[in-house]
TrEMBL record:
<keyword id="KW-0472">Membrane</keyword>
<keyword id="KW-1003">Cell membrane</keyword>
<feature type="domain" description="Major facilitator superfamily (MFS) profile">
    <location>
        <begin position="15"/>
        <end position="480"/>
    </location>
</feature>
<dbReference type="InterPro" id="IPR004638">
    <property type="entry name" value="EmrB-like"/>
</dbReference>
<protein>
    <submittedName>
        <fullName>Multidrug efflux MFS transporter</fullName>
    </submittedName>
</protein>
<dbReference type="InterPro" id="IPR036259">
    <property type="entry name" value="MFS_trans_sf"/>
</dbReference>
<feature type="transmembrane region" description="Helical">
    <location>
        <begin position="12"/>
        <end position="33"/>
    </location>
</feature>
<feature type="transmembrane region" description="Helical">
    <location>
        <begin position="138"/>
        <end position="157"/>
    </location>
</feature>
<dbReference type="Pfam" id="PF07690">
    <property type="entry name" value="MFS_1"/>
</dbReference>
<feature type="transmembrane region" description="Helical">
    <location>
        <begin position="456"/>
        <end position="475"/>
    </location>
</feature>
<dbReference type="InterPro" id="IPR011701">
    <property type="entry name" value="MFS"/>
</dbReference>
<feature type="transmembrane region" description="Helical">
    <location>
        <begin position="333"/>
        <end position="354"/>
    </location>
</feature>
<feature type="transmembrane region" description="Helical">
    <location>
        <begin position="200"/>
        <end position="219"/>
    </location>
</feature>
<feature type="transmembrane region" description="Helical">
    <location>
        <begin position="360"/>
        <end position="380"/>
    </location>
</feature>
<feature type="transmembrane region" description="Helical">
    <location>
        <begin position="231"/>
        <end position="248"/>
    </location>
</feature>
<keyword id="KW-1133">Transmembrane helix</keyword>
<feature type="transmembrane region" description="Helical">
    <location>
        <begin position="111"/>
        <end position="131"/>
    </location>
</feature>
Amino acid sequence: MDQPINQTSRPPYGILAVLMVGAFIAFLNNTLLNIALPSIMADLKVDAATVQWLTTGFMLVNGIMIPTTAYLIQKYSVRRLFLVAMGLFAAGTIIAGSAHIFPLLLTGRMVQASGTAIMMPLLMNVMLVSFPIEKRGTAMGVFGLIMMAAPAIGPTLSGWIVEHYHWRMLFHFVTPIAVSVFLLGLFLLKDKKEKVHLRLDLFSLLLSSVGFGGLLYGFSSAGSKGWDSPQVYATIIIGATSLVWFILRQSQLEKPMLNFGIYKYPMFALSSAISMVVNMAMFSGMLLIPIYVQTLRGISPLDAGLLMLPGALLMAVMSPITGRLFDKFGGKILAITGLTIMTVTTFYFSRLTFETPYTYLMMLHALRMFGMSMVFMPVSTNGLNQLPTRFYPHGTAMNNTLNQVSGAIGTALLVTVMSTRTESQTLKLSAEATGAVTTELQQQIAMQAMLNGINYSFLVSSIIAVVALILAFFIKRATQAEDTTEQKQEGNKVVAKLV
């Protein structure tokens, strides 16, 4: 086989369809939960710093699992990995749906995450090897349209369910769909993979788990325990040390679990940096907007979901359009335009008041999502385009890992900023209060302090977005790196195994 499979045969649309349905359910589940967080806080009697573990705990497991996906994708068939992923996801959904205490709910979310961690890199790899580089932007755009339909439906559906039923219905609703998708994959996907002799380096797996897990746990704990807690800085130090050791070990192995050599390709390295920074900024909106509109403004869950619907729909509609624009113009102009919009809108979110109009919030959120639609897929696709075929599993695994790590760090950082600012403002406003401090006054002070904390967190988020904007000016249109004849043969083997 002299030519890669993506240039000589028809893309495997059947496999892609089944994988996309599975990924859609996983995406839908994630967006369903955001609107329900205030209800979960009230029902299970936990605070914002604790409930954010439903997001960061999900990312923690993803961050630990995803580095192994490069190995798993090369070792096992698409069918086997899909069934394991959907099986774990369905099991986690059932556990979460039956949870009456927070630790059990968190356990269910983490089991779900172990399935999602396999699903997304698997789908991305099949996409990469199925389409030639000149059509990849359009293909990724169509993929983005399907995937962005989940965030469009999720918040509104979640709001309606939470308003009319218990929040556990969010999981009961997903369970039969997840089981059906599992059965669909069981009967429709076929095993074509040859037996591959590939051994997982268990010490690398241990270092990776401690490294990524330690960093994620440390940053996530900061929201509730504070940065001066030994539990926070000790786990961050242990995580960072293990991660450095992991990277050094991978450079010495003949077949590394995660190949950090992909960072010698400059556009991939730049795309990773931009995606990480944008992820950190993005999660501020996903977490802080539902808390602001429901906790401070008393807006119903359904109306909170409807507020976020236009933005999600706009992002979904824009996905195939930005894919075509990427094929025509490249990623630089799209990234600069999108990040400029994102930076400005995030800054305006730092000026919220108790009287900010509902329509204004909806339009501002929609404009922010419009900016994001020009960033993620074009930037990551441009970076992956520079990699030789044999590095696709490592590139997608690395991107997904860093997205989870940066998202969790961003969430933890911004929640910590919000909590710290809220606490300091509470003390300041209480000291400034004159006369008797009544219960009503205490409530007013608490709400004003939280509003100040949310605004300050959005301000920090806009500063983070500026960093990504500066990096975007260094983007160049990527061309696939040339391989030696031996390396091309190895790449073709990777393609043949994946499709």
